[in-house]
Write a structure and sequence with these properties.
The structure holds three protein chains of three kinds. By secondary structure, chain A is of the alpha/beta class. Chain A has helices at about 70-90, 95-110, 110-120, 125-145, 150-155, 175-190, 205-215, 230-235, 250-260, 285-295, 315-330, 350-365, 395-400, 415-425, 440-445, 480-485; strands at about 35, 35-40, 40-45, 50-55, 60-65, 165-170, 190-195, 220-225, 245, 265-270, 275-280, 310-315, 370, 385-390, 405-410, 430-435, 450-455. Chain A folds into two domains: about 30-270 and about 470-485, Aldehyde Dehydrogenase, Chain A, domain 1, CATH 3.40.605.10; about 275-455, 3-Layer(aba) Sandwich (Aldehyde Dehydrogenase, Chain A, domain 2), CATH 3.40.309.10. Chain A is built from 16 helices and 17 strands. The model of chain A is unreliable at about 1-15 (pLDDT under 50). The N and C termini of chain B lie far apart (about 80 Å). By secondary structure, chain C is of the alpha/beta class. Chain C contains eleven helices and eight strands. In chain C, helix 1 crosses helix 9 (about 205-225), helix 2 packs across helix 10 (about 240-250) and helix 8 runs parallel beside helix 9. The chains are: A alpha/beta, B alpha/beta, C alpha/beta. Chains in contact: A-B, A-C, B-C.
Chain lengths: ~500, ~280, ~290
Amino acid sequence: MSADQPVLADSESPPRWEYQESRENPSLAAVRDRYGLWIDGGEVEPLSQKWFPSIEPATEDHLAMVAEAGSSDVDRAVRSARDAAGDWATRPAGDRAKFLFRIARLIQERSRELAVLDTRDGGKPIREARDIDLPLVAAHFFYHAGWADKLDYAFAGVNPQPLGVVGQVIPWNFPLLMAAWKVAPALATGNTVVLKPAETTPLSALRLAEIAADAGLPPGVLNVIPGAGRTGADLVSHRGVDKVAFTGSTEVGKQIRRRLAGTGKPLTLELGGKGAHVVFEDAPMDQAVEGVVNGIFFNQGQVCCAGSRLLVQESVAADFVQRLRRRLLTLRVGDPLDKNTDVGAINSAAQLEKITGLVEAGRSEGAQIYQPPCQLPDRGYWFPPTLFTEVSQSHRIAQEEIFGPVLSILTFRTPTEAVERANNTPYGLASGVWTAKGSRILWMADQLASGVVWANTYNQFDPASPFGGVKESGFGREGGRHGLAAYLKGMG
Amino acid sequence: MEGRLGVRKTYKLFIDGRFPRSESGRTFRYASRDGVVTVQLSEASRKDLRMAVRAARRAYPGWRARSGYNRGQILYRIAEMVEDRAETFIGQLALQATIGSARREVSEAIDLLIWYAGWCDKYQQVIGNMNPVAGPYFNISTPEPMGVVGVVAPGQPALLGLVGALAPVMVSGNAAVLLASSSQAIAAVTFAEAVATADVPPGVVNILTGSSAELAPWMAGHMDINALDLSGVPPESSPTLEEAASHNLKRIGRWDASDRNLNRIAAFTEIKTVWHPKGR
Amino acid sequence: MRSVGPTDEVMVEQRVATLSTRSIKGESKKWALRAAVTMTDLTTLEGMDTVGKVRQLSHKAIRPDPTDPSIPSVAAVCVYPNLVGVVSEVLRGSTVRVAAVSTYFPSGQAPLDMKVSETRRVVADGADEVDMVIDRGAFLSGDYRKVVDEIEAVREAAGDACLKVILETGELGSYDNVRKASMLAMAAGADFIKTSTGKVQPAATLAVTLVMLEAIRDFRAMTGRAVGMKPAGGISTAKQAIKWLVVLNETLGSDWMTPDRFRFGASSLLNDLLMQIKWLNTGRYQSADYFTKA
């Protein structure tokens, strides 16, 4: 019988079990050559006559040419939203709920297609698009659908009213999910929307507009106008816009704040972060490792609430870093459409350049770098999972948002010192705490200056749970009852 | 007592629980409508503002850490101290108004303080939520104070505008630096004396008399101030101040002097959401 | 004793849920199915077991698929003490090892001297491997000394036989306890730690397996000794087995992808593996009628 034994019986030299590529079919998300703007319930040619390419970051291939909204296009979109606003706001709230329920269902039905679309357009692993982004997108529409006719219960005694036309600008890291975070509460509260998706990932937002039309959403209630920074600037400063919601960099957020100074226009900003994981010596270590890995490598670290700093108690620092390094060896970096990929492509050449620059700064400032051996594809934008040890609080990589798969590791001695270091940043979006001690968790949760505290977990999202930052990570909340306030008169 | 020569009060700033003169040595002259009463008040400089912010920042963690119950009692204590000085306030307010309206305003200010005092251990329950997330997590959202809040109080009504702006900021545990307009300066100083005797920890409330127009831009640009109540700022100054405030993304609120509502408390809080798994 | 640190149930389960999404296709799948066959402890532990039944099972173990000689033998046949002699006789000359449950399996509710003598007896009757149970009562009442003493005594009685220590994780109540019991068992001399008797629900779960694999990894780091892992009970499909191999592969790596360090305690798993192998080889979906039932 021994001749029949497979080679692995020879325990001295067992073969490594490699996972054969298991590639999701890219043609599940049909992409046309050209996409116009979505205004007043249909696709239109841009008055700007301008088009830009959307590129697949994993291959650098052109996916499609997309219309770029110029100022007259923005104007047209805002007017369309304005024309629709009255009917939409005065329509029975139960109808608004039903439209959102319909959209949620259609998203569920088409979630495989939409996941593939976001993966191709944005570079994120299909596993994340499929298992995290898309379920949350549908959940956001479901959750907010139910609120549409219950706003009187959300804010008792104030007769909440919509603001009117909402201008929304979203980033490229979660293309469809960010659209859902913005659009669902705005529509549920009776506003109409002009949405500008990110320049590098416009396709899924346009498809959302199609889905909304399929759901019977009246023309003008949701308009989608792709473009770059210029388009966004035109939108947020348009006089016909009653409220601005922006997710993106702190730098642009501040520009918008300045632009709106004195206008009295309600504004919510969801901006950058430099989230800290605080790992105590009594933490559930392996789960903390998973949390830290998930915190910084989820979506290639291109997450505003990424846990990009690790503060680990000195007594366990060496052991913890060892565990992290070992864990990094099993991260699978590569083709985002491969169902087994953990870390996909960086969203754009520009983002890759930024990450590379900051990592170089980390090296030259004397931090120790560790990157697991991994074969990166020849084409496309890639950056390997990266750990920096011997990082000081004053290093740029400990201060600046890298928005990439790069973790800076620092140590601390006492809980008070951990809090001091964690809070020693202009940002305050999210932080993580890992300890088995209940009273310490609650103390830390009180002390950490951030809008979200994940204790013994990280990067959890739910439409019922408010998300947003303090300090320079922005203001306003998205999700939950609190998120509705941003879209109602006198509440935000 | 006929013919006794009175002892007059020196009106000073209120910083860190003490009553210093302006470091600049500047004062300004205040005269009543009929010109009978004249007073010299300290005119705060930007350096005084800086010192006040520093004191507020130092005081903030301790104030925030007090229980809501305790903060409520202290706000109630301020009301007691104002009530105790009611005649003084009435006299001071009557320099610009009728006795009747001055009397009404003082009563309203005291009642308003008590209204807010009662919120200290309740607003969290009204604004906060347990969130029913779709997973095995404990998930709670609760309001927390923002830090140091700069307040430009409405000048009129003098006392009510000041109390109406300051109290909601204090409720959640923020520390405040308040610019009192020259028209309300006398009442502001007396109010500071009430605060100083009401067990308010030093630095939690700082009151600067002087020129709001001069100091507000420094306040708006100060990187260690987290939020602004610009209720007392004229609309034409708003764009400049808001631009200056954008450098550290200060939260900005603005109300009518008569506004008394939960939103004024909520506006100077941040919602913090905490997640924890539920497991064995 | 930091090695017995806490675990977090939700995060453990989230981790295995993520690993369960691995998509194993083509050659990777073939390799895994074949590996799973070689890692199987083909098991029957019924009151109604007979000489006839375990003979059949033993033959099946040596040659799982009579129509395909390229299919390897399983790792072991696992039976009650009464049937060790029969199994040993059939398996003689094959690569398949004889495994016996011992220590008054499944409850373990017997005095230590009886557990020791039972163990001596099964080894004398030809058992290459002894699957013992820990005293869960002692463990749950905090008498860790007793748990360790028993394992050490049985370890000694088992001699050169491979000692697998069953934690009966379904009775331990928490992953913290699973990790603690894993560490105790390894420290007391276990060659393998095993999840379950198969008589208690839940038996082997992916999450409990992950916690035990992490304990094995940490024990190796502390002591240098590599301990094997045996999930048992409830793993009946090839699809499940592949998930277990993924968790193994990404926790302990290729060093553990061998029957020397990983076993499935299972009965009906084997035929499902064979059906899947046949389907991959022929491109035709299979019928149970074409696979021998032992």
